[in-house]
Design brief:
Largest sheet: none
Distance between the termini: 37 Å
Number of helices: 4
Number of domains: 1
Order of helices and strands: HHHH
Low-confidence stretches: 135-140
Length: 145
């Protein structure tokens, strides 16, 4: 996960360099854009998939929200904010230039995937212990019990 996050940061740096070259010349540079795409998406998925697989039970983000650690909640909300800001930025940039969203989407997508992966890992590690402790005390998180 750490390697994936580092890859996302490198891809974001290359993406910013590609974006500044696009702003100056009005043309995208595939030599900067393609590595940015590979590093951002590859690193994002390299952080997301292990983060999801950490969960030993069923990850219920909304039902078990109070039992999740604060850091996991903050990262989860941050990942949703990154996705929302990325979508709004791509829509606004598309109105200015039809090529701009293609340059911007990798910047936001990699950051979203990495932050969602870390949030899932943090929340997935703590939920089974919290649910197990609750069931030993006679409490249950399942509404039917």
């Amino acid at each position: 996960m750490a390697g994936g996050t580092a890859s996302v940061l490198a891809g974001t740096g290359l993406g910013l360099a590609s974006l500044s070259a696009f702003v100056q010349s009005g043309r995208s540079d595939p030599l900067l854009l393609l590595p940015s795409l590979a590093l951002s998406l590859g690193g994002g998925y390299a952080a997301l998939f292990p983060g999801i697989s950490v969960n030993r039970g069923q990850l219920r983000v909304l039902r078990d929200w109070r039992q999740h650690p604060r850091a996991g909640k903050v990262l989860w909300i941050l990942s949703l904010a990154v996705a929302t800001c990325g979508l709004a930025t791509c829509i606004a940039a598309g109105m200015v230039s039809p090529q701009a969203p293609g340059l911007l989407v990798w910047l936001f997508m990699g950051l979203y995937l990495a932050s969602a992966g870390w949030a899932s890992a943090l929340m997935g590690l703590t939920v089974p212990a919290a649910v197990e402790a609750g069931s030993r005390n006679g409490h249950s998180t399942v509404p039917s019990q």
